[in-house]
What does this fold into?
Amino acid sequence: MFSGKNILLGITGGIAAYKTANLVRLLKKSSANVQVVMTPYAKEFITPLTLSTLSENPVHSEFSDEDTGEWDSHVELGLWADLFIIAPATANTIGKMATGLCDNLLMATYLSAKCPVFIAPAMDLDMYKHETTKSNIIKLKANGNKIIEAQVGELASGLVGKGRMEEPEAIVNQVEEYLREGLPLTEKKVLITAGPTVEQIDPVRFIGNNSTGKMGYALAEKANELGASVTLVSGPTTIDATKAIERIDVKSAEEMYNAVHDNYKNADIIIMAAAVADYTPQSLQENKIKKSDAALQIELKPTKDILASIGEVKKDNQLLVGFALETNNEETNAKDKLARKKLDLIVLNSLNDKGAGFGFDTNRITIIDKNNKIEEYELKSKSEVASDIFNKIISLLK
Ligand code: CTP
It folds into this structure.
């Protein structure tokens, strides 16, 4: 959700400021661009050096540089932000935000920002309960700001009550939930298979294939960006998936079959991009096969067709998408797979296209639907191809 987003973190002078180091770290780990603007008092609780190191950006605090006189533009900073999180927000800052007081860079940036603003109050319990604070928070909500409620717990004063800043993980979760709202696949569950399968011959050898999993992972990332909750059943790959994606690692076609059957029932959209082995050794040799001068034959048995097995059991409201990798009679073979495996869509990629197929960062696809409507696409990055596939899927959901 945060990938590539510009997040401005405003830090004010409360003890909870020390937790913002973790907040910056979490946002950076989610691939956000982070800049920090802090009030002069906030520096008493956490150093700008810590925050600039973690955010990998200079920290903003003064209207101008003392030595050079150079202006630090709050206007530019406010416009840069896709999201502004003010955490911790003291009673003082909340009061200023409610009335428009503008005596520091953070407040000037707040008044200049056009993006959604999240406020995580933190203060002692009596300050939080005070009618003035309460009415200020009501006003901030009415102005469109989002309040991340303070929590009950032990406070810096030693008293116990409501006023602790929400934990960084929960702040990130609440902001993420907001970002998901209104996305086309919010509340949809997507199950994706990716990568190769590995069929063990003996303890050291296996039958594999050239799939790297790039296309399946690009689909999983795209589904996540579009707001879906994603389960990725992955054969062995070297790719990492975003933390929000639930990844189930498998090796063999049999393991992939079981993982898909354990997880397909709740899925609204099922996409099988994995290159599943069609054959597996009849039996696994317990010991390493010794070399000899004679020819070696390994007897293979067919694996179960995972995609076709889901085609048999899926409900009408579940959308099933398969892939077809062909070298000849491409459209005819793909249409045959679409019908035989009872799919809603099939994505055809041809091994004859330059830059398409295993290992490339690009792909050139043709999508065929149940009515045999054919749509051809240009050679594109796998991320753009994933967008095209989801655009087609979303058009069918409507
Ligand atoms: N597939 C599957 N289980 C298998 C084989 C394939 O789920 N045991 C899925 C793939 O994930 C893909 C689709 O079926 O979505 C088509 O795979 P492909 O290898 O192109 O076709 P096959 O059905 O294996 O037929 P063939 O190899 O003869 O082309």
